[in-house]
Amino acid sequence: MIADFATSDPRTAGLARAVGATVNYVTGGAIVPLIKYGTGNTEWATVPQGGGATPTTSDPRTAGRAGPVGSLAMYVTGSVGLVLRKYGTTSTDWATVPVIAPGGGPSLIDGDKGDITVTASGATWTIDAGVVTTTKMGGDVTAVGKALLDDATAADQRTTLGLVAIAASGSAADLVAGTVATARLGTGTASATTFLRGDQTWATPAGGGSVRTAATIALGADPKPDHRSIVVDAGVSGVSKVTVSWGSLADTDENSPDMDPLVFAAIPGAGSFVVLASSTSPVSGAVKISYTVE
Questions:
Q1: CA-based Rg of the chain, rounded to a whole angstrom?
Q2: Is 39 in contact with 90 (CB distance < 8 Å)?
Q3: Closest Cα partner for 83 from 92, 73, 69?
Q4: Could you tell me the pTM of the whole model?
Q5: I need a labelling partner for 224 at 20 to 30 A (CA). Which of 78, 163, 249, 263 fits?
Q6: Structure confidence by residue, pLDDT tens digits, 101-111
């Protein structure tokens, strides 16, 4: 097929020819082969240089086209040209081949290539959504890393990592809204007379573990040798051992110097204990004491 020459670009200036006709557009010392793909005078398309391919506006892959195995054909559809090669003896045995553009490397025709869509004359390749899965990732990504990527929620990711949420929301920041239960801090029983050891065990301090607490008891206004008074302490139970001593925690005796020292006994109960105070002579008023609970 011998093409005419034109110095005006038929794609913009227009040129009346039959569909399938070819023309060489000469511009600036270069020749651009064009083929008529439609009835409009400006419906011309560039013919990729496919090594002697014969242009046609009918797709040989479906319409069929005779030719020896290995021969080339240029199928022009709309403004796009595809170079095809005959790979079998059947008339429809045609397949697309890469096109070598003049002065450049291989170019790819725009269109949907399956998992990738090519646009901008082969310059932009867009991977379809959902195509790249964790199985497509290389060996540098561990199995755990892939599992984290396809986890739907943060809770799922904690499960993958073997973590347990420390708060209902899974955020440690939420701890500002409350306190950590003593049972979560260590084993044993937490109370006013125990402390949390470094091995996360609630234990009684050495030396009896008792902590002295100051209190004041009222003996009443009527002097008498024996008195009963109640001291409230949430750390006391019915099985506690309560020891009551004369005087408060101060280094000096804060009780009246004229008062005879008292002898104390304690009867523990739930959240309080009864102090039994006895003296060799009648006493009254307020008395400062200290006590320990074990």
A1: 49
A2: no
A3: 73
A4: 0.31
A5: 249
A6: 444 444 566 77
Token representation of residue 236: 């006391």
Residue 75: φ, ψ to 5°: -95, 120
> What pLDDT was estimated at residue 101?
47
Q: Which residue reads 């060996």 in tokens?
A: 139
Whether domain 213-293 has CATH 2.40.70: the reply is no
Count CB atoms within 10 A of the CB of residue 29: 5
* Cα angle for residues 95, 1, 22 (degrees, 5° grid): 80
CA distances from 165 to 78, 172, 179, 279 (A): 60, 9, 15, 60
SS3 56: strand
- Torsion region of 121: left, alpha or beta (phi above 0 gives left; psi -120 to 50 gives alpha): left
Length of the chain (residues): 294
Hey, which residues does 214 pair with through a beta bridge? Answer: 290
Q: Parse the chain into domains and list their residue ranges.
A: 4-127, 213-293
Q: Are strands 272-283 and 286-293 parallel, antiparallel or unpaired?
A: unpaired
CB count in 10 Å sphere of residue 94: 25
**CA atoms of 88 and 76, how far apart (whole Å):** 21
